[in-house]
Amino acid sequence: MGALDKCAAYLDACGLYSLSTKQISPKLQELAGCLSRGKHLSLVNAQLCAVLSQLGQHKQALDKAKASLRLALYCVDCTIQAYKVINSRHRAGRAKTTIFDTVSDLHQTAKLALPMLKSIQQVLKSAQLPAHKDPVTVHPDWVYELAIADVMLLEPVAASELKGKASIREEFSVDFVLDKVVNVAVAYFCMATELHFMKKSTDFDPERDREEY
Amino acid sequence: MELGRRLSESGRDVLSSVRREHNVVLVLAQLEISALDHFAVEDLTAALADLKKSEALLEQLSTQGQTPDKDTVLSLLTNLACCYQR
Predict the structure, then answer these.
(1) For the whole model, what pTM was predicted?
(2) Alpha-carbon distance B57 to B72, whole Å?
């Protein structure tokens, strides 16, 4: 068994700890955990797609790219859900002055991310880029220096990083929201690459794969 | 008297099992820190050795019927994949 095969086997085993993307928790603490694990697993699947592609297993690689996309979109949905929870707490907290300051502060942070989140949702639904005046087009510098290989390269991780102990507030920062968009883009790139490989081989079935293609 | 002795023995067993489990968690955490340190200086052979020790410990836990922490296993699998990828 070569190093690439072993790498694929360990990445594949990560799938045993995958998340169910069908349900989104209504609790902020659980959402924070789902987001940190979801982002990690999305990258694990994208990486596994790349490794399987190198091994010539393009059909399996495409399946992993689809799983990566599912998880990346799930992370966007979880962030929107978190906003809704914070927003409802903010409304309910108006009467309770003791918790109002904390909730209000978090609500303000989340509210700043809302135009960007809505814009992402719109782009994903309509597959059309937003107008230039849209806030999502104002990117920080790192976005312009980002290479797809930097995102795809899996970095070593500590167990504590996956537990989602970080505050949900971070998930509304520009960098974190754009990070989620980058993961969606990487997953689409992986799918397109694998479909391109499959189109050359006999694995490609125009009827079955038309939608993705 | 006999029942008391048995209960006390079973209590000791539980306590020693808890201590063993606590020790395993500590050892796993230390091995993880050590592996990440080796990664940082790109000493992949040493990182792999630490991760393999963790893998063996977790396998031992599983065969004893204990469920290891999900995030610990997930990070271990990811780090092992990282080693073989580079």
Answers:
(1) 0.74
(2) 12
